[in-house]
Structures are given as C-alpha cells and as structure tokens.
Amino acid sequence: MTHTYNRFIFFVLIFVPLLFSAGACQQGAEYKGPKAEVGKPAPDFVLSDTTGKSWSLSGLKGKVIFLNFWATWCPPCREEMPSMEELRKKMESEQFQMLAVLYDDDPGEAAAFVNGYGYKFPVLIDPDGKMAKTFGLTGIPETFIINTEGVVVERFIGPRKWNTKKTDDMLKGYLP
Question: Model-level pTM?
Fold first, then answer.
C-alpha cells in the first residue's frame, strides 16, 4: 500500500505541475465577434505602451509586425523573451516592428520586468483585454506575424525560440 501511495504522491507532485506548465499558459479570452485569421487583414488597434506612447496597426503599414501576447506571470512567456530580444536586434535595420501585448497583468510589473532585462521592444497595454479577444487569443504566449499590407500571415501558439535561422528566413520572406 505504501508503494502505491508513494507512486501517487510522486505523480501528483511531478507530473501534474508539468501538465500545467508544458505549453502555453492557457487563459484564453471569450469573444463572439470576428477574430484575426491567417490570410485575412489583422484588426486595427490603438494601444499605449508602458511609456505612454500610442501605437496603431494602421500606423505601422509597410512594416512586418511581430505581435506577441504575454504576461509576467506566464513562465513560457518569460522564457521566450531573450530570444525575442535577439530577434528584435537582428531585425533593427529592417522594415520590422516587434510589439509585446500585455495580457491580464500589471503594467508596472511588466515595465519593471522588461527594463530589468534590458528588452527594448514596446510593451502595449490592453487594459480590458479587447485586443486579445479581437485576435481570438487561445492562451499565452501567442504570436501573430502581420505582413506589410496588414494581413495576418502566421500564428504561433505557445512559446518559441525566435532567434533561429528558420525564423529569420520566414520573416525576411515577408519583408519588402
């Protein structure tokens, strides 16, 4: 009996937490309206970043947009941030803009987090979660690539290593 009990405790302590942290931090937003879809124009938005600067998708036309939804409380989100920053640096001279949209989190904590690690991409604040709902977020991290014409061309659910040749080639394929 003790052996069976020990196995059960081992399972609960080891495997159950892994199930909850293995992929994306699942906390999708319920929304019944039209959602962003690959092959269709991305919904326009106007959001402010943690410094107060206003950003809109229509104002970025002509650039490839890397739009990442994340939160400080999401371990996979935090894990992919260093590779996102490396990608941002590589793409600095291109018609490219990386935007990180804060989902269900405190803007002050997010600003402290990105500043503490020296990340230079803007962190947009989606205070009521409307943008997350409009994009049909299924969990975080979730990333959308929007081409120079404003069309969603890629959607990635879950964390990624963004500092790879495969990512570079994919993004460069969308550049003008």
Answer: 0.82
